Amino acid sequence: MDGIISLIPILLLIVVAVWTKDTFLSLVVGVLSAFLVLAKGNPIGAFNSFQDALYGVLTDDGSQWVFILIALFGALIALMGDSGGVLGFSGLAKKILKTRKQTLIGTWILGIIIFVDDYLNCLAVGAATRDLCDQHKISREMLAFIVNSTGVTVCAVIPFSTWGAFMGTQMVESGVAEGTTSFGAYLSTMPFILYGWLAVIAVPLFCLGVIPLFGAMKKAEERALTTGEVFSPEAKAALVELPDEEKASEGKPRRAINFILPIALVVFFTIWKEDIVIGLFAALLLCLVMYLPQRLFSFVGFFKSVMKGIVDMTPVIIIIILAYVFMEATTQLGLIDMVIEVALKSLHPSLLPLIVFIVIGLLSFGTGSFWGLAAIAFPIVIPVASALDVNLFLASGALISAVCFGGHICLYSDTVILTAASTQTTPVDYFRTSVPLVMVPFAVAALGFLVLGFVM
């Protein structure tokens, strides 16, 4: 009974999100219901628990790192937009991508190229391609789907990424491959991260019509093609002011180099120092050194643009704070431990990869957690797999695929929230239109893990 009750906040959040199409309201309802369940209906106890969780999120080192990252990205995107760098890059892309299908595939390729970090991918690719996609009447929902399908999923299948570093460490600590490095362990697991590979491959199949669009995404694309309106009514209403890069960079030369070099520096420092925040600080300094001699900004105007970018990211930070508080509540409800324990009890060895993928995937979707969930699940799943004589790399691939699925589709995961921010749609719009498409690689991956479970 307790397990069923702990699902109520997640179900309420999703129902309210789909019904109202409002991300903030749905998160508030989810948070309130979660703490009321924890406090057994006592509103004072619920409020006190909420305060404690909020304080914990705001003072957590990991959360603060994310808030700083988002603020710095907001500043960098504003500078590149106001300097004409974004439009310069779009102008360069226009010379190469001349048709609608070319633009869709080009956006997909750019997402694959920026593979080092899912946050960098989500924010940079969306900002770089918005203008070009608008000219070809590509809906913001479709753009968001492409961006996030080449964000967390690409990072999950490439060992030279933040995902590779984190998951490889978890594998070694859990005893997946004793005596090898985290990189070596992850390299051996790569072929079995089925969902990541399939989600990336599915994008061009949808873009080229090999797999026809259906459901809400088909309607969104029809709206953009027939009316030229790339925004949904909800996304348009959520924007305080529609983007106007043309006005911000009026009278300034549009040089693609003013976009490419700062992003390249972020990528370089992310690989070298393994910390994207250092890369963002370096990129902002580079912008100062590049833009002032070109007379794109005055010294004061430069920092006004920085502050504007940070302020623009404030709603995103607030939504992420609420999402983290909700994750904390679901953790306190004991949902993760309860579900994993029940799912893995008395399990046939051949079914373990499939069960791990589905159960952990649904948990990741429901809780909005992927790295945290992986850190919890690895020490549980790997000993079970070892005891059942299941291939440990296959079991690891199923687990990484599962949390990759959660990051790809959960409407209150940080990657979805950041993708929505960069493409200027809403997380609910992304969720509503992308769920039907995402279920295609999910179903194929589930079948793949079922077959591999028996074959291996």
What can you see in these coordinates?
It is a single chain. The protein is globular. It contains 25 helices and no strands. The chain is mostly helical. The longest helix is centred in the last third of the chain and has 29 residues, at 427-455. The chain has a domain at 63-157 and 213-315. The relative contact order is 0.16. α3 crosses α19 (314-332) and α6 runs parallel beside α8. The mean pLDDT is 85.
Q: Summary?
A:
With about 450 residues, the protein is mainly alpha-helical. It has helices spanning about 1-20, 25-40, 45-60, 60-80, 85-95, 100-115, 120-135, 140-150, 150-155, 160-175, 180-190, 195-205, 215-225, 235-240, 245-250, 255-275, 275-290, 300-310, 315-330, 335-345, 350-365, 370-385, 390-410, 415-425, 425-455.
Topology:
Elements: H1 2-20, H2 23-38, H3 43-59, H4 61-82, H5 85-96, H6 100-113, H7 118-135, H8 140-149, H9 152-157, H10 162-173, H11 182-189, H12 194-207, H13 215-227, H14 233-238, H15 245-248, H16 257-273, H17 276-291, H18 299-312, H19 314-332, H20 335-344, H21 352-367, H22 371-387, H23 392-409, H24 414-423, H25 427-455
Helix content: over 70%
Query: Could you describe the largest sheet, including whether it forms a barrel?
Result: none
Order of helices and strands: HHHHHHHHHHHHHHHHHHHHHHHHH
Q: Beta-strand level of the residues, as a percent range?
A: under 5%
The chain-level mean pLDDT equals 85
Structural category? mainly alpha
Extended strand count? 0
Could you give the distance between the termini? 37 Å
Total helical segments: 25
Over all CA atoms, what is the radius of gyration?
A: 22 Å
Write down the overall geometry.
globular
Low-confidence stretches: none
